[in-house]
Fold each of these.
Amino acid sequence: MARPRVLSGIQPTADSFHLGNYLGAVRQWVTMQETHDAFYCVVDLHAITVPTEPADLRRRTRVAAAQLFATGLDPERSTIFVQSHVREHSELSWVLNCQTGMGEAARMTQFKDKSAKFGESAASVGLFTYPILMAADILLYQADQVPVGADQKQHLELTRDLAQRFNHRYGDTFTLPDPYILKEVAKITDLQEPTAKMSKSSSSPGGIIDLLEQPGPLRKKVMRAVTDTGSEVLFDEENKPGISNLLRIQSALTATSIPDLVARYEGQGYGTFKKDVAEAITETFTPIRERTEKLLADEAELDRLLAIGAARARAVAVDTMATVRDRVGFLPAPGV
Ligand code: TYM
């Protein structure tokens, strides 16, 4: 039987992924390449929904791709590609824009959060329709599962609604995708503001740990992570959100259950625990950083890997789009 299909994406909007991206999403991408037919993209079309310098975008797109390979995604087993290399993403996005109600798009909470920064009327229309482009990414590949963090759940619901609506209007065309969200790591929080999501756009430098962070600053950030005034390492999200976040991180990185960690640190205070958390993150991130640096040193090779991914992705996307064009009633394009 064919393997189920998985698709996910990540934005090249910073010079490094962060711990939330890694634990909430990318780590699952790596595991799923063993069991799924995997498609993962660097979503540069999404990145330009907010003002972006072309040189930054170019650099960050390559850095993002290099990090994906460096975390263990294998270009033989997974299709890793850049979204704008497959023009069908924009094309399907337009068709889906025309299936989406204004009110439906306006309910997306990420738009509300992100546009609040600029003022709603200064935000681009692209930022408003961003989730529809995301739906196109997923539906083009007929994905069965989409590994993401909790913040993408609402976008996945919209994606399913759009797929269902299209199938109902035009005949069965799209697979309905399921979100794949691991509860324990679905929302890694900011080290300085432990009730808020760790986020490249809103966290302060002290609140966010980059995948490409050097060990010195990394350790400092963990040691300075906001905790409560107590001294017991206990999992209590209400009263100890900072320690609970660190427990989740440590549990995911060391494959140790939270109760086991709590037992291990009984009577030892926060200092010892934080030192071990910093150690576990450094141990995981250092080899990834080193591999990323190596990959970035050979741009031609990186671009060659991305060209292979683009060709494989295109083969699937072109097929889906041909069906969509026909279903919608577009005449066959002459000469294509
Ligand atoms: P992006 O680039 O913001 O984040 C990439 C992935 O990281 C997850 N994530 C987190 N998980 C846990 N804790 C956190 N603090 C945290 N911060 C981020 C995100 O949930 C995401 O899975 N719209 C998407 C990109 C996208 C996409 C797609 C995803 C575009 N097309 C198609 C899936 C399928 C985004 O902005 O992710």
Amino acid sequence: MDRQYYNVVSLIRKKRDGGYLTKDEIKYLIDSYTKDELPDYQMSAFLMAVFLNGMNDEEASALAYSMLHSGIVVDLSSVPGVKVDKHSTGGVGDKLSLILAPIVAAAGVPVPMISGRGLGHTGGTLDKLESIPGFNVNLDLDAYEATIKKHNLVFIGQTEDIAPADKRIYALRDVTSTVECIPLIAGSIMSKKLAEGIDALVLDVKHGSGAFLKDVNESKKLGQRLVDIGLQFDKKVIAYLTNMDQPLGYAVGNWFEVVECIDCMKGKWPDDVREVTLLLSGAMIYLGDKADSVDEGVKLAEEMIASGKAYQKWIEIVGEQGGDVSMIENPDSYPKAEFSLEFKAEQDGYINSIDSYLVGMASLELGAGRKKKEAPVDPQAGIMLHKKLGDKIKKGETLLTLFTNKKPYLESAVQILKDAYGISNEQTEIKPMITHIIDKDGLRDFDYSTVPSLKR
Ligand code: URA
């Protein structure tokens, strides 16, 4: 059929004036932009119109559909089993993919994982994996398929063929201040995830000081959009809303986080990392048909840790993708950052707030993230927390240790962190980590009694 042509200015105007575009109109805009037939300035104007006026459900699905079909949709039907992935909307110290993917793969569920790099103040799975010397995340799609067949697990980055519209539009959003927009985020995430060849998806939608969308009500809307799109594409989907009011675990920064993951896989968990990782793993195992409920899935996930099978799977995949296994087996042999500094408490009291955004920004400043697009990250840079929310602290005690290879960054990171901690005499209540669930039955508060195995 001949391609239908539209007047782009009219489409932008319609969206600008609060109107709704049809599926064909959205597809036309996305296709034209991907083929370089639409200039950046017109796509920017369209994105800003969407940012200001939003999209209805049909438009949001059409956007995800068009972005998905801007590239290849991988067919993993030759891989036996229900293929399940997990996606997090991004947080500080969020290293969970590295732990849960081997757990779930060891439990017999294939996990094809296409991940991203650090974005703004949040870290990225690819940067963490690449801190392991030799680890190759740039597999082509044949190697992707062969690896998942062999190991039930593969970690790669977005290739040129996977949702190329997202790659281009994301870069434009970054420089036109149109990132924090629910339909644009939903289209971006789901186009990549649906392209990987999955049957089911577990989503971790963050809220709180370290999340992109800090307000829980915004996260609920995003979670609902993500789930709706997944269901429309006939995928099994569960989203959990989780708290990002403090960094996850104690390590922030690429290699530091890998080391914390190794500890977790050996059963030495920070409580918050344990809780969210086991829940998400349990949900993946359940959606992957290897357990009759999420709770059964959590029990199986714990068995994978206790038996050492998750750690074995991790070693296996690191070796397969070219990583130096000796570094995993002996993390102390990893070269250390040249400079460090202890960031100390200025008063006695209880830690009642930690601004995770500032901790993420300080880690980026130290070299763990990017100040410019495509810049390399420093795998040795980062921050180790010594205390978490609710902990008692004395004046002069160390809250954080900062690590970098560029000495001046220590001072600038300290400047960023100076208002990051709230310390007071009264201990305030710590909010639960998992706050809501969204699935085919809609949104509800998360009820811990439905997953009793999460309790220690
Ligand atoms: N992660 C993505 O992949 N896309 C967004 O738009 C935001 C977070």
